[in-house]
Amino acid sequence: MSTDLRLPPLPELGHKRLAVRVTKDALRHLRAGHPWIYDKSITSLSHEGSAGDLAVVFDDNRRFVAIGLFDPASPMRIKVLHSGSPAQIDAGWWAGKVRAASQLRLPISRDGATTGYRVMNGENDGFPGLVADRFGSTVVVKLYSPAWLPHLRSVLGAIRDEIGPKNVLLRLSRSLAADSSHQLVDGYSVLGSGAEPVEFSEHGLRFLAHPVTGQKTGFFLDQRDNRRRVADLSGGARMLDMFSCTGAFSVAAAAGGATHVTSVDINAAAIQTVAQNLALNEANHNVAKAQCEGIVGDGFEVMERLRRDGRRFDVVVVDPPSFAQRQANVERGLKAYGRLTELAVSLVASGGVLVQASCSSRITEEQFFNQLHVSAARAGTRLLERERTGHGIDHPVAFPEGAYLKALFARVEPLS
């Protein structure tokens, strides 16, 4: 099979670097490791630049501070690649960055039981506006900025050489997919076959990813460690998987010995995928004997109905989509998480466990965990914490805004 990358003509990198000066506040953030420079923080720019041009930030004494990708259409005007000492951004530099990210993930793939994980976690790995996920022999790269286009061949070449995938696919953000200035399309096959679904493994369980038609890169990998925890809790349990999506929590619970698994999602296609992933694992004795049901419906409405019907579960997992994608949505998002907690604790059997997660980066850990406890108390219960969890090693956090995932494992008891 050819290892040549299939790419259309891409914008060329400008030969002249931009010289940039920024506010003192922005300098302070840069030196603390922040990966973005906002347009309002720029005090001077040597010349007009194009998307992807290299921009060098100097302080008032003309000393190097950082270098990044210029993005003239974005409020995040410069996406920082490197800070501290000068660096030459070329193919060799990109290869080193990809190698460093790959080496960090070695503990995940060492035993061969897990072949699905994040390879490059955006800003947190020094790739602002770019993520890459691995599903077995397929790597899916998602771009969120046109600033990557002049560098794309070098980055993809480094991924090919370091990881050795058979297939490489490109996913584009909505704005980038709508941009007519380039010839890329969402789902573009760069190397190998673009066929889907793609099979991969997680802790020895088999799953299907849909890298072209699925959300994000085709599968949500960030809850991998929490799924293992749920499996360990599920022996002999009745388990409820709210907002189940592809059913990874459901499969993990069944494999862990759950006697009955109920998966709920508003998307009928997602519930079909749950069934497919369960079927993939029927060689597992526990999965084969578990009684599994799928329910299509709005999560809030389904939980209300389950409560009215008197249904109770030993393990309840509540892992909804982000409720606060903007700062203005934080209060409303907290209320939504609280309402889910009130509903969830009413569905947990005596001595059972609630697992509730948030992927809203704008909601802090303190806000989230406090909201869960307050809402549980409002519903006449208390949460006895077993564990608070965050990011796995393939989703490193390099700056405060890079942290988004948080989950609480708690036993639910009535208030005395």
What is the topological layout?
Blueprint: E1 18-22, H1 24-31, E2 36-37, E3 42-45, E4 54-58, E5 64-70, E6 78-83, H2 91-104, H3 106-109, E7 116-121, E8 130-135, E9 138-143, H4 152-163, E10 167-172, H5 174-177, E11 188-191, E12 198-202, E13 205-209, H6 224-233, E14 238-242, H7 248-255, E15 260-265, H8 268-280, H9 285-289, E16 291-296, H10 299-308, E17 313-318, H11 330-345, E18 348-358, H12 365-378, E19 381-389, E20 406-414
Parallel strand pairs: 1-4, 9-10, 14-15, 14-17, 15-16, 17-18
Antiparallel strand pairs: 1-3, 2-6, 4-5, 5-6, 7-8, 8-9, 10-11, 12-13, 18-20, 19-20
Helix pairs in contact: 2-4, 6-7, 10-11, 11-12
| DSSP E strands, number | 20
Q: How many domain modules?
A: 3
Look at the structure and name the CATH superfamily of the largest domain: Vaccinia Virus protein VP39
What is the molecular shape?
A: globular
End-to-end Cα distance? 67 Å
Strand content range = 25-35%
User: What value does the Rg take, in angstroms?
Assistant: 23 Å
Can you give the mean pLDDT? Answer: 96
Tell me the major beta sheet. Answer: 7 strands, mixed
Tally the helices.
Answer: 12
Main sheet strand line-up = 16-15-14-17-18-20-19
What is the CATH topology descriptor of the largest domain?
Rossmann fold
Could you list the spans in which at least 5 consecutive residues all have pLDDT below 50? none
CATH class of the largest domain: Alpha Beta
